Amino acid sequence: MPQYLQIRQKQTTQGFSLYVCLALLLANTLRIIFWFGKHYETPLLIQSILMNICMFALVQLCVSVNNKDVIVTERRREHVFTDLDPNFFWGWTDFTSYVEFIMTLAAIGSMLMYFLIDYAQFVETVGFLAVFMEAMLGVPQFYRNHKNKSTYGMSIPMVLMWSTGDVFKTSYFYLRNTPPQFFICGSLQVCVDLLILGQVWLYRENTSKKKKSERSMNL
Known about the structure:
- The protein is an all-alpha fold.
- The chain is 76% helix and 0% strand.
- The chain contains nine helices and no strands.
- α2 (19-37) packs parallel to α4 and α5 packs parallel to α8.
- The two termini are 28 Å apart.
């Protein structure tokens, strides 16, 4: 929500990696599918459903803002999921393409779970992939910050909420004896969050310069 509000207010996606949304959508879609193979805590299932709704809302906003920027600067050909062009993967120009991609993966995953539900190794693998992808959700943002040498455009409250939520979530995994994949990857996720917060301090001067530059342009 902090990142959504920041992008909506400034009308720019600069500094935010849309691949964060991809990681969360994949992770939570797999986790929903995993529930049918191995029932885990219901609050975690509800969390996954709500997270997908939030991520689709954020993707829709990012696509809308990016399309406005293109209209202002230059015309470009539309790129959609059905083009099957790997050069524009997760860089499509319409929101429907993102929904179609996730729904296609969900359909394939659900079909595999239906036929292979009796194979414990397959079910556990799906569970591991779900929590591992979620643990890696901060990596695209970490890389983008590293590439820009700045955290400008990234919502710091968002990362603080990530960190706080991940600490509580990982503790919950441990106390409730959830499948081991949850605790292991939850701990990894906390480490990535801390690395991103470290970047906030490391690149504080560059970030401050970009903020001052933005204020000057607005004046």
